[in-house]
Specification:
Elements: H1 2-16, H2 29-46, H3 50-73, H4 79-100, H5 103-120
Helix pairs in contact: 2-3, 3-4
C-alpha cells in the first residue's frame, strides 16, 4: 500500500514538473533559425568538433539577438552612434569566436572572411 501511495505521489510530481529548456529557447524563432544556419555554414567550411559547434551556436544566438535589440533600440539614433554600437558588438563577436577556435581554424576563418569580403566588393 505504501509503495502504491509513493508511486502515485511520484507520478503526480512528474506531471506538474516543468520541462527543461533547450539552449536557445529564450530567443525569438527567427534568431534561432538564423543562428543554426550560420553555425552550420561555418561548420561546413571550418569543421568544428561537437563542443565547438554548441558553443559557437550559442555565440551566434547571443550576437544575433544583441544586434536585433540594438537595431530596435537605436532606430531613431544618429547613424554614427548606431554604427559604432553595432561595430562594437561585431568586434566582441569576432573576439569570442576567435577564442573558441583552434589556431588552424582561426586561419581558415580569416581566409574565409577575406574571400567573402573580396567577392562582396
Amino acid at each position: 500500500m505504501n509503495y502504491l501511495f509513493a508511486a502515485a505521489c511520484f507520478s503526480a510530481s512528474l506531471a506538474h514538473a516543468t520541462p527543461a529548456k533547450t539552449p536557445g529557447e529564450d530567443y525569438p524563432k527567427s534568431v534561432q533559425v538564423r543562428a543554426t544556419t550560420l553555425t552550420q555554414a561555418l561548420a561546413h567550411r571550418i569543421h568544428f568538433n561537437e563542443g565547438q559547434y554548441v558553443r559557437i551556436k550559442h555565440l551566434h544566438l547571443q550576437f544575433l539577438n544583441e544586434r536585433r535589440e540594438l537595431e530596435q533600440s537605436l532606430a531613431g539614433a544618429p547613424a554614427a552612434d548606431r554604427d559604432a554600437q553595432l561595430a562594437a558588438a561585431q568586434l566582441r563577436y569576432e573576439q569570442s569566436l576567435s577564442e573558441l577556435l583552434q589556431p588552424e581554424q582561426r586561419l581558415a576563418y580569416q581566409q574565409l572572411r577575406a574571400n567573402f569580403t573580396a567577392h562582396r566588393l
